[in-house]
Inverse folding.
């Protein structure tokens, strides 16, 4: 039963609607409620709710002119400025190296744009175990990543992904940062599913945070802290196993954010 229906609270969360708005839509007939035999409480078909959630997301992003795509060189120029504002230019890889990173691994940089302007981006890599360990322990930071460290994603064999940056432009308002962060996370989840469906068999995703806000975000989307891994007190290493449950966590977070934006 649970795999076919959402409870009211689950459906409300999936759609990112307030309780009042959710039940208003139910009463108006926009959201179908069913009462299975032997039950007193109404439930909501998962297919209906998931389809409505996807439709709401697509309409919202289309209305806002929001796109998520592989970064072009012009996008990387804007990403460099966002990264510098967020972390400081000394911690950000210079543009020439970034361009070569993308040439070595086409999936390295992806940007979120609103009306053609980059508002956030994500970078991900595949490294040898040695380089990955250096990043997780803090013996290496983004600026230290060399062109020779960057490996293309292999197909049809297990590997791990390292998320180096997931950032929204700090110059934006808090409301917009929250909104765009949710969309960026959701679009990244879609990208991961796309990669897996095309034979990129990564099984774990690693990342490092150096702020309380970053730590809170990665914890919310299903990452677990690697206790005592980082040698640098301000840096925390995290890992998440790739599975359908984790992807649903990422997508649910985006629904919450869009609901917050509408209220």
């Amino acid at each position: 039963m649970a795999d076919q229906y959402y409870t009211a609270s689950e459906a409300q969360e999936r759609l990112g609607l307030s309780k009042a708005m959710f039940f208003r839509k139910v009463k108006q007939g926009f959201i179908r409620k069913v009462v299975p035999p032997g039950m007193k409480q109404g439930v909501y078909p998962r297919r209906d709710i998931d389809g409505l959630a996807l439709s709401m997301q697509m309409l919202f992003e289309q209305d806002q002119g929001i796109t998520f795509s592989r970064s072009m060189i012009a996008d990387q120029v804007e990403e460099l400025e966002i990264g510098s504002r967020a972390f400081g230019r000394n911690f950000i890889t210079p543009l020439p190296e970034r361009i070569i990173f993308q040439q070595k691994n086409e999936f390295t940089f992806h940007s979120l744009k609103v009306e053609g302007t980059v508002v956030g981006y994500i970078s991900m890599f595949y490294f040898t175990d040695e380089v990955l360990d250096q990043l997780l322990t803090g013996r290496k930071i983004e600026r230290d990543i060399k062109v020779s460290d960057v490996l293309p994603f292999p197909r049809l064999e297990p590997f791990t992904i390292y998320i180096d940056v997931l950032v929204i432009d700090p110059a934006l308002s808090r409301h917009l940062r929250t909104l765009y962060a949710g969309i960026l996370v959701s679009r990244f989840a879609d990208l991961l599913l796309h990669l897996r469906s095309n034979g990129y068999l990564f099984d774990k995703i690693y990342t490092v945070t150096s702020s309380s806000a970053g730590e809170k975000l990665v914890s919310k989307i299903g990452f677990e802290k690697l206790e005592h891994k980082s040698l640098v007190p301000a840096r925390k290493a995290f890992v998440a196993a790739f599975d359908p449950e984790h992807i649903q966590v990422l997508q649910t977070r985006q629904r919450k954010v869009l609901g917050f934006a509408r209220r």
